[in-house]
Amino acid sequence: MACPRPQSWCLGHTDFWPGGHYSGRGGKRGARLGLGRRCSLRSSSPGSAGLLAFSQAQLRSLTHGTEEETENVSLLPGGPVVRGPAMLVTAYIAFVVLLASCLGLELSRCRAKPSGRACSNPSFVRFQLDFYQVYFLALAADWLQAPYLYKLYQHYHFLEGQIAILYVCGLASTVLFGLVASSLVDWLGRKKSCVLFSLTYSLCCLTKLSRDYFVLLVGRALGGLSTALLFSAFEAWYIHEHVERHDFPAEWIPATFARAAFWNHVLAVVAGVAAEAVACWMGLGPVAPFVAAIPLLALAGALALHNWGENYDRQRAFSRTCAGGLRCLLSDRRVLLLGTIQALFESVIFIFVFLWTPVLDPHGAPLGIIFSSFMAASLLGSSLYRIATSKRYHLQPVHLVSLAVLIVVFSLFMLTFSTSPGQESPVESFIAFLLIELACGLYFPSMSFLRRKVIPETEQAGVLNWFRVPLHLLACLGLLVLHDSDRKTGTRNMFSICSAVMVMALLAVVGLFTVVRHDAELRVPSPTGEPYAPEL
């Protein structure tokens, strides 16, 4: 039975991946729908009838290849195209160059780093190691799943509209559980919450073994809960243990999280390579990284259960938290502008996370290496942030937020041209994506600094709850309207819309700069007063 046109589910031939390129693996009589239905082989668009009528045998005759050779053929708008090595070579060269740049900057920073009291305190270093071994395993398991999430849904023959709904479900569950995560963690206990994270995330990974759409939706909901726990329970446990149980100076806390932020980037780079290894080099397929993450999660939960003590905190009513955050948001123009910038910028980043795979994958991109290159670019941006705010250059975080927004605006304009239907340029798109990740490396530490200075500590949880609502709402709306039209046209239009959104963010940055340009509180202190992050 043919699918009705308004649903935008039916893209044609059964042997096509969602998004139009040839899978090379026949066998299923139609594109799989979340409700168990399948589209017919008839195209609902007269203009695409010729393209959708190709069979595997006709495709091989057009390319004069064998059945095995058609594995590397993409049916792009210009016709059958044999995947060349350009994207593959570009990805590996970019990865090596970015990695070498990051390594050089970090080595120079280490040579110039002063010694500190924390480094010479064996009890503190031992306490850090107890925290890091659990936290880093959790982060590694999280990053390991990122490169092949979209590809896995494609592998199960879901269409892009269905995949977008899966992403929206994940975003919605993240914001829903994020609103109550702090209260849940305080009530349940931080250690138990970390163990719960390992259990829920393991279940989320197991759902990826199913091809059932509703099971995958449940998995996305579990992933949202796990993400909320990952970014609340671990940090809360550490801060309580650091101050209350071990009585270390509170000034040493930033040193721990500065080191954790650096190694988080390193783990993301390594996870991308590992995902590429298990999925492609070992030939285990796109579900392999999700299976490989389960032992890491189990080990993290076991170590937390065995080595960590339990701690609780006094709960604050959720309504009171949100009310206090709203009062702070409306009473301080700086907070309102920061929230506007965050909502606009990070909603565009969420859409980028969805779009990069369907833009690059049809051109033979090694997804794991591409992801590692993205994370290396982000790490490079973080290193440039430290250099820019150093005593030598002494740029301020508000300047770097402005620069990050400008870079993203430029990159999105590049993408509107490099994804033009029939004139796709994957290498240019890849460069634009790298620039977006570089901008993220500048943006996130700058925004973190500004939030700490502008938002009172007692109101941060409530204010961040109000920030998350428009952020995720914009991202969800963007994903839902993305594939209202033809895939390629829809992708290009989405980048155009994102460009307009980032121009609005740029206007908000100009407004913030006007308000705070004489505010000494928002200036980076002298580097001599910065906490020392000990080597591990």
From TrEMBL:
Residue ranges that the Swiss-Prot or TrEMBL entry lists as coiled coil: none
InterPro entries: MFS_trans_sf, MOT2/MFSD5
Keyword Nuclease: no
Keyword terms, alphabetized: Cell membrane, Ion transport, Membrane, Transmembrane, Transmembrane helix, Transport
Keyword Cell membrane: yes
Pfam families named among the record's database cross-references: MFS_5 (PF05631)
GO BP: monoatomic ion transport
GO CC annotations, alphabetized: plasma membrane
Membrane topology category: Multi-pass membrane protein
Subcellular location: Cell membrane
Chain ranges passing through the membrane: 86-108, 162-181, 217-239, 260-284, 290-309, 335-356, 368-388, 400-418, 430-450, 462-482, 494-516
CDD domains reported in the protein's UniProt record: MFS_MFSD5_like
GO molecular function: molybdate ion transmembrane transporter activity
Family of the protein in this entry: Belongs to the major facilitator superfamily.
Task performed by this protein: Mediates high-affinity intracellular uptake of the rare oligo-element molybdenum.
Protein name per the record: Molybdate-anion transporter
Organism, as annotated: Balaenoptera musculus
